[in-house]
Amino acid sequence: MLFFSASIVACSKSVYQTAGFEEQPIKNNIDNVNKTLKDDFITEIKSGSKVAIAASCFSIYAFEELKEQLKNIDELRFIFTSPTFVTEKASKQKREFYIPRLNRERNLYGSEFEIKLRNELSQKAIAKECADWIRQKVCFKSNRTNQNMMGFINVDDTNYMPISGFTTVDLGCERGNNAYSVVNKSGAPFSHHFLNLFDELWNDTARMQVVTEEVLDNITTAYKENAPDFLYFVILYNIFNEFLEDISEDVLPNEATGFKNSQIWNKLYNFQKDACLAIINKLEKYNGCILADSVGLGKTFTALSVIKYYENRNKSVLVLCPKKLHDNWQTYRSNYRNNPIAEDRLRYDVLFHSDLSRDRGLSNGINLEYINWGNYDLVVIDESHNFRNGGKITTDENDENPRENRYLRLMNKIIRDGVKTKVLMLSATPVNNRFNDLKNQIQLAYEGKQELINPLLDTDRPIEEIFRRAQTAYNHWSKLPNEERTTARLLEDLDFDFFNLLDAVTIARSRKHIEQYYDTQDIGRFHTRLIPISKRPPLTDINNAINFTDIAQHLNMLNLSVYAPSYYIHASKLYKYGIEEGQESKGMSMAGREKGIRRLMAINMLKRLESSVNSFRLTLQRILDIINKHIEDINLFEATGVQQTFDFHDLTDGLDADDSEDDFFVGGKKSRIDLRDMDYISWRRDMQNDKEILDMLLCMLQDITPEHDSKLQMLGKNIQEKLLNPINPNNRKIIIFTAFADTAEYLYAQLSQPILDKAHLYTALVTGNGTRTNMPKVDNDFNTLLTLFSPISKERHILLPKETREIDIIIATDCISEGQNLQDCDYLINYDIHWNPVRIIQRFGRIDRIGSKNETIQLVNYWPDIELDQYIELKGRVESRMKATILTATGDDNLLSADEKGDLQYRREQLERLQSEVVDLEDMDTGINIMDLGLNEFRLDLLKYIDDGHDIEHTPFGMSAVVESNNPNERGVIFILKNRNNAVNIGKQNLLHPFYMVQVGDDGQILCDHLQPKHLLDIMRLTCKGKTSHDANLCREFNRETRDGRRMQKYSNLLGKAIESIVTVKQQTDIDSLFSFGDTSALVGDIHGLDDFELICFLVIR
Question: How far is CA 554 from its chain centroid?
Answer without folding.
Answer: 46
